[in-house]
């Protein structure tokens, strides 16, 4: 099994990342750190604990990390995730255990990573990169120790000739979701993102799941029905129904905000679980992530500009600009087998039902 640590800001799509990380038989989830992002740190931590409770994995330790970036205020996404960060479900249980505050998150991360053999463990980040940047700044030797870093973040629309994000919106030029250019996780803390992508050794171990990929993976009606399961199936139990119902309600809320905010009516892109799924590709699952034959990229993050700039919609803070790397560089997959991905999510849900 592949050991991993998850750093997240649990909102609607992070919940599915937690599901995959906690229930795929080929993965071993060592722990979770939480970060500011979709909502305040307090809320993303509670949401994470509640999801773990719902899926029968309260044994996974959860450590609250950074409340805000070092050099900016925190920004939240209540228009997409609601005021709790995980609005829209009536089935979410209260956490059955508390978060762990000692040791602090980055010490716990380091300890968990170092306790595994060198070159085996993955770090998966599905929120702002504050905790991850602090980990590698404080313990640079962790770069050598990990197998890889998988990040959901960024939007490159202009990096590929047929940017699906542009197609989805029918505009061609808009490829960010926070602003015209910036994806939310990078926009939240661009300085932390930059410190990761500008570290050549770390960049060479990094996989970036951008909006250009996640906007191909839409939780449309068919997917919503697949994951809702069959309420009349003979094997159904009350627990079975609640878990499916909870994830169903989460998807429906997400679908509604994506429709209202972005006019995306086909279904919401389920960004974060792809950053977990890529660990399985070619190992126990064949998801056919396509990185154009191993092409690698330098990722430059625009850090000039304030979130509060009146023209932040036009400003470029948080934009990820890519150029081809001759050596090293970040891996940026551009395609995935969407059907197999959803089957994988469904299988993890089945395992959660049995937990
Ligand atoms: C990212 O932003 C957050 O709102 C989602 O959870 C995801 O991690 C997508 O841009
Ligand atoms: Ca997230």
Helix and strand layout, with pairings?
Layout: E1 2-8, H1 12-23, E2 27-34, H2 41-54, E3 62-64, H3 78-81, H4 105-114, E4 122-125, H5 130-138, H6 142-145, E5 148-152, H7 164-169, H8 184-188, H9 190-197, H10 200-203, E6 206-209, H11 211-214, H12 221-228, H13 238-262, H14 273-277, E7 296-301, E8 320-324, E9 330-331, H15 338-354
Parallel strand pairs: 1-2, 1-4, 2-3, 4-5, 5-6
Antiparallel strand pairs: 7-8, 7-9
Helix pairs in contact: 1-2, 1-13, 1-15, 4-5, 5-9, 12-13, 13-15
Bound molecules: beta-D-ribofuranose and calcium ion.
Residues 8-9, 11, 13-14, 37-38, 126-127, 272 line the site of calcium ion.
H/E element sequence: EHEHEHHEHHEHHHHEHHHHEEEH
What can be said about the biggest beta sheet? Answer: 6 strands, parallel
Beta-strand proportion: 5-15%
- For the secondary structure, the number of strands is 9
Low-confidence stretches: 159-172
Number of helices: 15
**What structural category arises from helix and sheet content?**
alpha/beta
- Separation of termini? 18 Å
Radius of gyration: 19 Å
Give the strand order, joined by hyphens, for the main sheet: 3-2-1-4-5-6
- Helicity range of the residues? 25-40%
Q: Calculate the mean pLDDT score and round it.
A: 91
Bound chemical compounds: beta-D-ribofuranose, calcium ion
- Shape verdict: globular
């Amino acid at each position: 099994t592949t050991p991993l640590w998850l750093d997240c800001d649990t909102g609607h799509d992070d919940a599915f990342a937690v599901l995959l990380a906690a229930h795929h038989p080929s993965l071993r989830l060592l722990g979770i750190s939480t970060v500011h992002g979709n909502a305040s740190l307090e809320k993303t931590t509670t949401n994470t604990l509640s999801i773990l409770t719902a899926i029968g994995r309260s044994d996974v330790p959860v450590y609250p990390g950074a409340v805000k970036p070092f050099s900016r205020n925190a920004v939240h996404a209540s228009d997409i995730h609601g005021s709790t960060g995980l609005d829209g479900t009536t089935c979410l249980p209260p956490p059955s255990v508390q978060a762990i505050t000692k040791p602090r998150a980055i010490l716990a991360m380091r300890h968990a990573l170092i306790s595994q053999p060198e070159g085996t463990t993955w770090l998966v980040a599905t929120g702002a990169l504050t905790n991850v940047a602090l980990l590698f700044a404080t313990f640079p030797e962790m770069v050598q120790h990990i197998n890889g870093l998988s990040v959901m973040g960024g939007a490159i629309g202009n990096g590929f000739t047929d940017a699906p994000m542009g197609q989805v919106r029918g505009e061609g030029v808009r490829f960010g979701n926070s602003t015209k250019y910036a994806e939310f996780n990078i926009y939240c803390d661009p300085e932390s993102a930059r410190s990761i992508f500008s570290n050549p050794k770390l960049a060479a171990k990094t996989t970036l799941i951008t909006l250009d990929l996640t906007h191909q993976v839409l939780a449309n009606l068919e997917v919503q029905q697949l994951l809702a399961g069959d309420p009349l199936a003979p094997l159904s139990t009350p627990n079975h129904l609640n878990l499916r119902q909870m994830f169903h309600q989460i998807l429906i809320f997400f679908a509604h905000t994506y429709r209202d905010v972005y006019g995306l009516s086909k279904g919401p892109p389920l960004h974060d679980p792809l950053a977990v799924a890529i660990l399985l590709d070619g190992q126990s699952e064949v998801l056919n992530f396509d990185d154009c034959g191993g092409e690698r990229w330098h990722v430059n993050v625009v850090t000039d500009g304030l979130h509060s700039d009146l023209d932040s919609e036009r400003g470029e803070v948080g934009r990820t600009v890519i150029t081809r790397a001759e050596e090293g560089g970040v891996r940026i997959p551009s395609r995935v087998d969407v059907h197999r991905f959803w089957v994988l999510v469904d299988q993890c849900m089945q395992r959660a039902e049995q937990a």
